[in-house]
Amino acid sequence: MTPRPRARGDGFESADVLRELSTAPDGRLSFHDLADRCAIPRRSRPEFRRFLKTLVRDGVLRPARGRAYRIGRRRSAPDEHAVEGVVRRHANGFGFLIREEDEDLFLPPREMRDVLDGDTVRAIPSPGRYGRVAGKVTAIVRRGRTSIVGQYQRIGAREQVMPEPGMFDEPIDLVPGAVQPRNGEIVEVEIRD
Question: Fewer CB atoms inside 10 A, N or C side of the chain?
Fold first, then answer.
């Protein structure tokens, strides 16, 4: 295989990357194999890795198993298959998106990070574990509540409110100096996105 010249100037060409991936066995290449095929010198590889990350973020590439890359698929419009519903949060961190006409979507804890009980969200259904339909939250359409009640905690310079576990299972950071309660007091805070 003859090394191909890099892109003009100090940049990289996505066309070179796509050409190498399209001719690769199984359609995937590890970072080092891709850099070798594109004749990227070792000193330029950190910059090349950042370039590949931007291609992944733009959807041109997608990560593959074994720290490799594949050509990205053009996805359908994100809202094409999205559904909306109200979230019911479980004390263990997961939740369900309640839909009126169809089966509820299971929302794993990683999808519940910023979602509160009663919020209306937009999610894309996807196959889940054990035959369930899971959801990937794409947007919070409307908050179910405008405030939260919890216990105020001051930890160093950080101010937090620890809400009831069924409502939200992580401390909520406050704007420093926004309230002046004593440590341990029950407070009501306004939710702002």
Answer: C
